[in-house]
Amino acid sequence: MTENLPTRIAVVGGTGPQGRGLGYRLALAGHEVVLGSRDAERATAAAEELAQQAGVARITGAANLAAAESAGIVLLAVPYDGHAQLVTSLARAMAGKIVISCVNPLSFDRFGPYGRNVLAGSAAEEAAELVPSATVVGAFHHLAAPLLLDPEADLSHEDVLVCGDDIAAKERVMALAADVTGGRALDAGRLRLARQLEPLTAVLISVNKRYKTRSGLALTGLAPAVGKVPA
Ligand SMILES: NC(=O)c1ccc[n+]([C@@H]2O[C@H](COP(=O)([O-])OP(=O)(O)OC[C@H]3O[C@@H](n4cnc5c(N)ncnc54)[C@H](OP(=O)(O)O)[C@@H]3O)[C@@H](O)[C@H]2O)c1
């Protein structure tokens, strides 16, 4: 498994529940987190609140661009609406870096949630197309923000499915995922499988609504500790 050194991670869209939740767990695990926002003041306020909740100082806030410029790893935690425009605006800041996408292109109608058609195949592939020099990895699509933000919530039984085309980057993100949940991260395959992982969240949301729960994913048939990309 890749050595999991403390890293500075920029969370673009870090004022939202998913960005704050992942930022919270990553900071608790020892990483330096900078929450990004379209508004630097909003980012700073969110970061101060989260730092207090986590009891750690290593959470700061900045405008999305400054956050992405300052970090070695960039996590995209924004809605799919406006995704292409935002990614394009951050392209130079993300060039040559690992970019993690947890973006789920979903829509809702009177029948509930469903996956949207994305021209590039998936949000993660869209980011990769827009920033070809970045190494995009898909992860964290199925972790529920309220649980990430709940210090009492045990996420160690949930699997984080990670997809990407670069093995080293994928192992790096799998190590971060294990930090977030305290559990298992699985190599789900190539980045194109984000086309299946992203809309799968619509199923979880639908189940949540029907059973009034917060469902997550756990696969059967695997050894308990899987953290390496299989040869
Ligand atoms: N919520 C969950 O439980 C969950 C779980 C798994 C995956 N996800 C995925 O994670 C992503 C973020 O989820 P979320 O619930 O945190 O979303 P959100 O609250 O709707 O948005 C997150 C942040 O994105 C920024 N934002 C909103 N619209 C934007 C736009 N057009 N352009 C640029 N920035 C914009 C906002 O920050 P500023 O206004 O401060 O810029 C907002 O606080 C989504 O793609 C979602 O599918 C969410």
Topology:
Blueprint: E1 8-12, H1 17-28, E2 32-37, H2 40-54, E3 59-63, H3 64-70, E4 73-76, H4 83-89, H5 91-94, E5 98-101, E6 106-109, E7 112-115, H6 123-130, E8 135-138, H7 145-148, E9 160-164, H8 167-181, E10 185-189, H9 194-211
Parallel strand pairs: 1-2, 1-4, 2-3, 4-5, 5-8, 9-10
Antiparallel strand pairs: 6-7, 8-9
Helix pairs in contact: 1-2, 4-6
NADP nicotinamide-adenine-dinucleotide phosphate is lined by residues 13, 15-19, 37-39, 42, 77-82, 86, 102-104, 141, 143-145.
What does this structure look like?
It is a single chain. This protein is an alpha/beta fold. It has one domain (8-211): NAD(P)-binding Rossmann-like Domain (Rossmann fold). Helix content is 39%, strand content 20%. Strand 1 (8-12), helix 1 and strand 2 (32-37) form a beta-alpha-beta unit. Helix 1 (17-28) packs across helix 2. The longest helix has 18 residues, at 194-211. The two termini are 12 Å apart. The structure holds NADP nicotinamide-adenine-dinucleotide phosphate. The site of NADP nicotinamide-adenine-dinucleotide phosphate has 24 residues, from helix 1. Residues 13, 15-19, 37-39, 42, 77-82, 86, 102-104, 141, 143-145 line the site of NADP nicotinamide-adenine-dinucleotide phosphate (NAP).
